Automatic annotation (TrEMBL):
Transposase DDE domain mapped to chain residues: 320-437
Span of domain Transposase InsH N-terminal: 5-94
Species this chain originates from: Corallococcus exercitus
Superkingdom of the organism of origin: Bacteria
InterPro entries given in the database record: Tnp_DDE_dom, Transposase_InsH_N
PANTHER family referenced in this protein's UniProt entry, alphabetically: TRANSPOSASE, TRANSPOSASE DDE DOMAIN-CONTAINING PROTEIN
Residue ranges crossing the lipid bilayer per the database entry: none
Residues forming coiled coils: none
Protein name, as recorded: IS5/IS1182 family transposase
One Pfam family per UniProt: DDE_Tnp_1_6
Amino acid sequence: MLAAAERLVPREHLARKVRKLVKRFDLTRVEAGCSALGQKGYAPREVLAVWVYASLIGIHQGTRLAHALQTDLALRLLSAGHAISRSVLNRFRASQGPFLLQALEETVRWAYQEGLIEEQALAVDSVRLRAHASGLQVRVQRHSLKRLEALARVDVRSLTEPAQKHHEDQVQRHQQAVRLCQQRGAATVVLSNPCAGLMQFPGNGVHPGHRVTVVSSGARQRLVVGVLLSASGNDKGHLAQALQEARRVLLQVGLPPSARLQVAGDAGYWSEEDLHFAALNRAWVDVLLKESSPTGPLANEPGMLRREAFTLQPSQRAVVCPAGRTMRGPVRNAFDACEVYFGVGCADCPQRARCTRGACRKLTVRWEYERLRQAMLQRMSQRGAAARYNQRIATVEPVFASLEHDMRFRRLSSRHPPTVRAEVLLKLLAHNIRRLLTCSRLFCVCLVLEAPVSLDA
């Protein structure tokens, strides 16, 4: 079978390119954990090449890949003629998470050595992937607390014996949900998938999912240099960990410690925690964030006075309304960690119709957030910041297009945390390998096109 594959698979086939590049990986530690005993053995390099190529052509389940190995010549070429079983394929992927992370970092090293990494052209964003879990396994802390309050009001003594048993089961179920949410510090948990959470998917409702945060480099190269896996429903608070991981990888591949990164992120990272990180770490990273759109019942209503119409005076901790009157306050709101200010003389104010629908205008202020907000707005107003930020979409969004559309990877096939992480790392490794192959080909084309110019000169 191998001889037929060598003869029939074209020389420029993607499988041959993948095999050639996979040969560059150092699999010494992986091979040290393998045994030469037994009737059938498969070289780890061959299994890795099979998984990378399968990911690129949209095969993500071990069962489908094992069936494809029976008839696909390109896969047989990569497997050295073997029909690798489903159990071997799944076991390799599940157990090689640390190696896949190392291999991903190795692709960054190769790209850095070839001058393909641009530390001044980084972008960060995340994609939501469906988890291998049923919606029936989701528990929401807020709903469980309400349900426990309702169950506590039930007179158990008046129930029949089966009803009492059902009542007891319901109480234990919701107590377990609240306990798990508190232990993990999350608003939702998925009982059958510990690393998943309830997420809103675009146009497809609410489902258990995983959030994959990616830091990529270059609008042309689009190479992944950092990855973070979480179960959060939004991006807030993930900027620090994602950028620190990307910096660790870049320093490891040879970036000088004195080098300063520049990263662009969308409005999803506009939070006090992420703004604080950006202000605190300006020495090694220049963060460019776009302010999120205002929210609230009057925020987007035409003709209404927006928050920018009010003058904040941080030194005096005072707020002046658009009518020039100093608002009453502050009143401390300990629950939301903010200060509340109330309008003065709103009843006879000529701008009341454009300012509030209530008896007086209320304004909440978090002074530390306002300081961080002004610092980021000032940075974004500087020359070149807007143009650099506009490259964000071309830098990171194609990574997600590669995963979801080119590879058709929208849902994970495992629910165990080590395997989930390994599966995500495998897809990002396949993406980086494809980008290395593509960038090398484009580089050769550029040389051919530029050659006549140099000859004429």
